[in-house]
Amino acid sequence: MSTVVDPADYSRQLDEKTARLRELLAPFDAPEPAVFDSPREHYRLRAEFRLWRQDGQRHYAMFAPGEKHQAILIEEFPIASLRINELMPKLKAAWQANEALSNKLFQVEFLTTLAGDAMVTLCYHRPLDAHWQAAAEQLAADLGVSLIGRSKGKRVVIGRDFAVEKLEVAGRTYQYQQPEGAFTQPNGTVNQKMLNWAYDALGQRDDDLLELYCGNGNFTLPLATRVRKVLATEISKTSVYAALNNLADNAVDNVTLVRLSAEELTEALNEVRPFRRLQGIDLKSYQFGSVFVDPPRAGMDPDTCELTRRFDNILYISCNPETLAANIAQLHDTHRIERCALFDQFPYTHHMESGVLLVRR
């Protein structure tokens, strides 16, 4: 599949992805997938650039896969948000005009949101001193962004170390802290479509939800309004802190969040061994009717996959349709696909996000 950014070719590429998902799910008698498209341009809210010296100046650069020595210099980036494209030349002009900002600067990271917030991270091969701090504070004020400086073993935060996102699900607006360095969905428009699909697929229930791999609470917040209570797990400390703040900021009070991996929670539910982090949580008090999973590219490990078989409903968001199909194959004898969807998070690439609702036969 072509990776050239050509909006005129978008529909053909999306049709190819739909055919691929249909083929992967065909052995499981899946219904026709609902397809959620992406904006053709300016859809990516995150971008990361290495800097490349040429003609005495540093330029934004990217590299072809496997290539380290031949840089592709970037002046604008049509797939990135309008805010990133607006910030890129202003930031470049600032470091070109100020040695304290440019000296040994080797990487720039942007994080923006649909809500209009922006955070810029500057990475250096040198210690950050008072001259850098003064220049960076002025730059952050001029650009209207939070700015983070990183050097070996040190991080300097000017403003906040997170960006604020606002997403609407079923008529309610949720506010999210998206921390620097933590995972967030890169395509905000499609993320909002995913949240609404998951909310609708789960339906209104009078029992409890188990959520594995909850991240910063992206899905947790809206799904919590559909059930009695939620037990959610996440292993990343940064994401756990963000999720706890997001639950508080949105007055969602029926979620218990524990810092455990999916594999550890499986052991706890199977009573293989106790976990100190579950102290005070009565797992037997939950009446789980559904489990929600959004695993990494490797999918669920066999034990976690086996754990999900206990639930009447398995709501599964996947960033890798091959591992999704492998997990469904393990569950197919007890669960059938009631709904499926394709979310085009990554236009002009072969990557796709998909979702299935599996219900007990």
TrEMBL record:
A biological process (GO) annotation for this entry? tRNA methylation
Q: What is its EC number?
A: 2.1.1.35
According to UniProt, the reaction catalysed is: uridine(341) in tmRNA + S-adenosyl-L-methionine = 5-methyluridine(341) in tmRNA + S-adenosyl-L-homocysteine + H(+); uridine(54) in tRNA + S-adenosyl-L-methionine = 5-methyluridine(54) in tRNA + S-adenosyl-L-homocysteine + H(+)
Fetch the SUPFAM superfamilies from UniProt. S-adenosyl-L-methionine-dependent methyltransferases (SSF53335)
- The enzyme's first-digit EC class, named in words, is transferase
- Tell me where the signal peptide lies: none
User: What InterPro entries does the record tag this protein with?
Assistant: MeTrfase_TrmA_AS, MeTrfase_TrmA_CS, SAM-dependent_MTases_sf, TrmA_MeTrfase, U5_MeTrfase_fam
Provide GO CC annotations from the record: cytosol
Q: Which UniProt keywords apply?
A: Methyltransferase, S-adenosyl-L-methionine, Transferase, tRNA processing
Binding-site list for S-adenosyl-L-methionine: 185, 213, 218, 234, 294
GO molecular function terms listed in the Swiss-Prot or TrEMBL record: rRNA binding; tRNA (uracil(54)-C5)-methyltransferase activity, S-adenosyl methionine-dependent; tRNA binding
**Which residues does the entry assign to the active site, renumbered to this chain?**
319, 353
Top-rank lineage group of the source organism: Bacteria
Which family is this sequence assigned to?
Answer: Belongs to the class I-like SAM-binding methyltransferase superfamily. RNA M5U methyltransferase family. TrmA subfamily.
Q: What does this protein do?
A: Dual-specificity methyltransferase that catalyzes the formation of 5-methyluridine at position 54 (m5U54) in all tRNAs, and that of position 341 (m5U341) in tmRNA (transfer-mRNA).
Q: What is this protein called?
A: tRNA/tmRNA (uracil-C(5))-methyltransferase
Give the encoding gene's name.
Answer: trmA
